[in-house]
Amino acid sequence: MRRRIRWLLLIGGVVGLGLAVGIGWWQRDQPAVKLNRTLVQDQAGNIQLIDSHNQSLTLTNDASSIVQYIQVTPAPDGQHVAYIQLTPTVIEIRVQAFDGSPARTVFSDFNLRPFYLYWSPNSQMLAFLASGTTMELYVVPADGSEVAHKVRDGQPSYFAWKPDSSALLLHTGGGTPVGNTAVHSVQSKDLTFFKETAGDFQAPAWNADGSARVVVVADGEINQLMKIDQAGQQALSEPTSDGFMFVLSPDRAKVAYQTFGLQTRSGLMIQTIATGKSQSFETARPLAFFWSPDGHSVALLVADARPRGPSGDAGIIKVSRQTQTGVQVHWEVLNVESGQVKRLKSFAPSGPFLNVLPYFDQYAASLTFWSSDSQYLLNNSSDGVWQIHVETGAEQQLTTGAFGVAVP
């Protein structure tokens, strides 16, 4: 089992994290109540941003078979977007404001291919993964004032920005015995390794003030989700031989997690970090899960056919292989306080959306499928991107393209 889990984590770092999305127009003079906005990739592959008044701005208009845009990632400030442009001669990371100004290139290379972008919380820097002869992690200022700085190489590679944007928490190399965790200081560029043995998990996380890290620690064949600070370790789960996928709530007061083995995965568990209160929701075996921005709900992505296997392994593989034969998925919205679950309409997932699912814990740090007011979810389906109201189930098609993400 452990060999299989580590293989999963290795694949999670090697398989492309790339996906294509797009952006459009929003008004410069924001109203008192911020409009929900969605970045979409249209059918041609160009980038648009669509707001809740159906106003849109196209930021790219030259997408083709030789010019492609991928990894469109909104900044936390809701004012900028970063994306990757692929051409036969060069690969660039570009940053663009939502005011109609031209994009600026912050990274350019022919041999090194970026495939995942992650803004710092202060929206001033970008961390990104790139593949060449090895997998490498870089940080670059979003204003393009400095060249990209290489943090380290190694695969798989997962990481989290510290809340004050001063450092990156790294989990590199997978689980025990080769995996490790470390912290990289953006200012000094120092890399400091932690002593604990990394368990079977993917993306690490910080607590709200950056004084503690949340990781999975291994003791032989046993894994346990832990909060670790200068005072020591606090267990956030029961010990298990299974691996973990986990995501912290927006206020970082709770952690939602799922355990998985070779042919099983658990229901969702939610732990309140300060009190140790634990909640178990066993009705669904989600392929992925995402907290709402207000922290009141968790969106569980569930396969209608309920394929077996962990997220990122047999579950995702089965859904991916059968999408051409009508396999469906759906969102189930869990109210954390009441425990009530509301099932939304099924849809056939698009290819770019499926690419996210094996690494959803990492993607949950850099993008969301929830609207900024926590009232809508996005269905990235084979027939376009649809916005669905979580209470009424009312749908609106935003584009016939393949992928969309919400803007903070």
TrEMBL record:
The chain crosses the membrane at residues 7-26. Keywords: Membrane, Transmembrane, Transmembrane helix. This is Tol-Pal system protein TolB. InterPro entries: 6-blade_b-propeller_TolB-like.
